[in-house]
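Researcher: Here's my situation. A collaborator sent me these components and asked whether they could plausibly form a single complex. I don't have experimental data yet, so a predicted model of the whole assembly would be a useful starting point for our discussion.
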Amino acid sequence: MAQYFLEQARVADFVAHLLASNTVYAPHRKGSRSYAFAKADDPAAVVLDYPRTLSSVKKFFLPPREVLLNFDLTLDAASVPPVEPGNAVFLGVHSYDLAAVRRLDFNFTTGNPERNYLARRDGARFIGVSYVPDKFHFAGSVGIDPYDMTGCDMFLTKHADGWIVDIPTGEGSELAAGFKLEAHDEPKPPRAHFTQHVFVPQARLGKVMEASYDHPVWNETADACLGCGTCNLVCPTCYCFNVQENVDIACTSGQRERSWDGCMLRGFTEVAGGEFFREKVAARQRHRVYRKFKYISDVTGQPWCVGCGRCTASCTAKISIVEIVNRLIRDSERDESILT
Amino acid sequence: MEQQIQQFGAGPRELYLPEMAVITEVRRLTELETLYTVELPGGRDLGHKPGQFVEVSLYGIGEAPFSISSSPTRRGSFELGIRRVGMLTDVLAGYAPGRKIGIRGPFGNGIDVSKFTGKDVLIIAGGIGLVPMRSLINYVLDRRDEFGRLIICYGSRSDSELLFPDELAAWEKDPRTEYHVTVDRGTEAWTGRTGVITTLLPGLALDLPNTVACICGPPVMYRFVVMALRGRGLPDQNVYMSLERRMKCGVGKCGHCQINNTYVCQDGPVYNLPDIAKLREAL
């Protein structure tokens, strides 16, 4: 495949080129230490070299808050608000976040396909960028390379004073059309290494999880865990939601709204009458980890964690999903029979 | 997974918009429970199976799942037996015939009655668990010759909380229905059996291989009933149960009703015991 080169000094020009005919979402600085995906407006404000954003591009397909129904209480009638197709360019997406989008695609198309998600997802084009793994990333352990172009229409690999550009799809060619890119035939730079690893592949991890239901790590983790649900909120593959009713002050109209929810929150399993089906924090931690490495993974064969490191990086109590999983692996390997 | 992305044009159906239905009858069952008869536009059948549920919407208040209490053999409308336990059910308790409510569903797998055909049907219902079981009971009663014995075991906290008293009396009189009832604590007027529901099981004469059991009740009840049925020698594959969880969306998306790897709103609420015996969060 032909390769091109984009000098760092021309990145803003490239963003301006994309903005001329597209809605573009890209990483921006947020405060002094954080990054967030936002609608690009000022080409110079887009940042392509970043460790991770606070939340992934998930928020554009499954917004943190979303109106499901508008209702009129005087008529007792409801209508579904239109969902505009996304049709946007997502610039500067890391491979693990794109892998997470593919997992969400699976969740929202299997069983009952969901119009809201799929309409927003429609027409999305992705321009991936490579990244240098920091102390939280472990995507390599779940099979997602920092240079993985799967799902990308263009891919930018960091190199010296700029970016090596791959254009794997026709849509990528359309995005690049009219913007002068020099051909580039030098080899790609050596791959960056991860410092965080999960030590067995998913095929064996399912068995490790199976053997670890009563492992002390759940209670020990629960002792530190605040049950705040931040790990759920920042996870690019978490998609559980709550639904609430908002009524205007005159009580004549309102909205049924959904918002992100989290299985780490106590009320998540509460039913009428006050029964909680996963009341203990330890059980909720196990559920969270099993959601990422067992339940859906047993069906799809793939880990539902993409190794972005957000849950660990954001945890007030410094709970590390990598440490939890590696401890389960270590302890179950002591019992050879589990893994053979 | 790559292929999934190609399928976006498929035009998925609307998942979250309720259909407006009318409450045609309101029957107070006890101080807390009410039976609502609900009619869809044009008297269309809901098209449900026993054991399925619907999501009921009161705009401005919210939406909640309720099991369907009527049998699909009773056409033209359906019934919901609802206990007052929260905001939505409190508001609903003030509703009179003619009021509209939103309905989504039916959802869940329901009971595969073909597996019960020709078998002796043992119903074990605790408290408000009789509401969904009544759908199956009336299904069996309406197609009586397709089934063997109908054995109903019903337990309630008190005789003042017994639901559907007219129907209980009819079952007691019906020579083809074996009806057993017990209450945890009876009032002074109670002359029947006292004790928890499992006390009804040892005395039953059962043709074990030919008996299917269906259980519904409060969460604490299941493991004790399962132990009692195992004690009687009933094979696990003959035992079905309907489980309650927080089924918020009903369409397998919101995540609230998950038990280990199963979604109650999709794979349940009716489970065959061997399918959930190994699920630690189930019972």
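Model: Some features of this prediction you could bring to your collaborator: Chain B touches chain A through 47 residues (CB under 8 Å). Chain B has seven helices and 15 strands.
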